[in-house]
């Protein structure tokens, strides 16, 4: 069975919430690509719209928006997601995963693009630390 941890960014408050999903809710993400918008009910936020922004697979390799499909690909990078050069002109061959969400993905990054009614932390069942 497929399960994900979704790191959900709330741009209004600047907070990030982690939500574990599995089963039917996780299947709503299968076959989608980075940049796609998804209904927030999959993570317990009815009336919200989420945009898939990134993620990583079971080995920690990042998803890259410029690589098609869900397979692993070894690409030469000058910087960006998956490689941070330490000096000018440095390049490196790095194994990354494509932009399509598959059963190998373990963590997804998403941000709220259309807010619904209610506070995100309360809807997710998180307690405040006040």
From TrEMBL:
SMART domains: Ribosomal_S6e. Keywords: Ribonucleoprotein, Ribosomal protein. GO terms for cellular component: ribonucleoprotein complex; ribosome. GO terms for molecular function: structural constituent of ribosome. It holds the Pfam family Ribosomal_S6e. GO terms for biological process: translation. Belongs to the eukaryotic ribosomal protein eS6 family. PANTHER family: 40S RIBOSOMAL PROTEIN S6. This is Small ribosomal subunit protein eS6. The gene is rps6e.
């Amino acid at each position: 069975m497929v399960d994900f941890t979704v790191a959900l960014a709330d741009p209004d408050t600047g907070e990030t919430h982690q939500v574990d999903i599995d089963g039917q809710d996780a299947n709503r993400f299968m076959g989608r690509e980075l940049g796609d918008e998804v209904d927030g009910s999959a993570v317990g936020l009815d009336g919200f719209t989420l945009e898939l922004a990134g993620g990583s697979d079971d080995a920690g390799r990042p998803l890259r928006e410029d690589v098609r499909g869900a397979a692993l690909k070894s690409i030469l990078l000058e910087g960006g997601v998956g490689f941070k050069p330490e000096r000018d002109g440095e390049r490196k061959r790095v194994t990354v995963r494509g932009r399509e969400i598959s059963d190998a993905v373990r963590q997804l990054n998403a941000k709220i693009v259309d807010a619904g009614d209610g506070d995100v932390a309360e809807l997710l069942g998180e307690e405040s630390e006040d």
